[in-house]
Specification:
Layout: E1 2-3, E2 9-10, E3 15-17, H1 24-30, E4 36-48, E5 57-60, E6 65-70, E7 75-83, H2 84-87, H3 92-99, H4 106-111, E8 120-126, E9 133-134, E10 137-139, H5 142-145, H6 154-170, H7 175-205, H8 208-227
Parallel strand pairs: 3-10
Antiparallel strand pairs: 1-2, 4-7, 4-8, 5-6, 6-7, 9-10
Length: 236
């Protein structure tokens, strides 16, 4: 039985929680405090495209990451993160202080930011991937397995969750069995993404000398081994 904010009540066979890392349904059904901070804070914003990058471009500093992705001829998406202890008030001025010293092509784009630029700020959190199923409730996406964006798989894993759950529901059968099959189909994959995200965070935030040597010598191989499991079918 679901009670809506306008007072209506309706009964459903299944309730799916897909409201993100701070899911109110997860708190209501499974208890609070599932999400934990991971000591990374970030800025996300869209800036004018200066034409200097034509694809995914990342730059790594001392505990800091700066990423640019052109999204049109006119605009570029910028992502920047740092240790939460450096995040301060999360203002654009703080971002400029931390990243405007980066070399081109991304550093000058940050240095040129207007302090009034609209920015999304976040203290990143992780929700441990586990069995988020109870009494015809199931969590999907960041509500069930949020992690840092190091693998760039947040939206991908949420979409996969929805596709797999829809496929299993469409085949019919008792809801309890459907949810158990859903958990078995997803836990290994989302657990892998969390594990590798933690490893990538540790590498990129550690010693610059070690990180640069590892990436220079083994980067291609590490990339293939990290993403190869995600090319496998979602369901047998």
């Amino acid at each position: 039985m679901v009670r809506f904010s306008d007072g209506q009540e309706k009964e459903y066979d299944l309730v799916v929680g897909a409201a993100g890392v701070n899911s109110p349904l997860r708190s209501a059904v499974f208890g609070s405090n599932a999400a934990r901070e991971i000591d990374i804070s970030c800025w996300r914003l869209v800036v004018p495209n200066n034409g200097e990058i034509d694809g995914w471009t990342a730059m790594l500093g001392n505990g800091r990451t700066l990423l640019g992705i052109p999204i049109s001829e006119a605009e570029t998406y910028i992502y920047a993160d740092c240790r939460s202890s450096e995040f301060g008030d999360g203002s654009v001025n703080t971002m400029k202080r931390l990243f405007s010293g980066f070399a081109g092509p991304l550093g000058p784009m940050v240095a040129a930011l207007d302090p009034a630029t609209a920015v999304h700020r976040a203290i990143l959190q992780e929700v441990p991937a586990k069995r988020w199923i109870a009494d015809r409730h199931v969590l999907i996406g960041d509500a069930a397995h949020a992690c840092s964006p190091s693998m760039a798989q947040g939206a991908g894993m949420a979409i996969e969750d929805a596709v797999v759950l829809a496929e299993l529901v469409s085949k019919g059968g008792p809801i309890d069995g459907i949810l158990e099959r859903f958990h078995e189909a997803r836990i290994g994959r989302v657990g892998w993404v969390q594990k590798k995200s933690r490893a990538r965070d540790k590498l990129r935030s550690g010693s610059s000398r070690i990180r640069n040597a590892v990436l220079r010598l083994f980067g291609d191989g590490l990339y293939r081994r990290t993403y190869e499991p995600l090319t496998r079918p979602l369901l047998p």
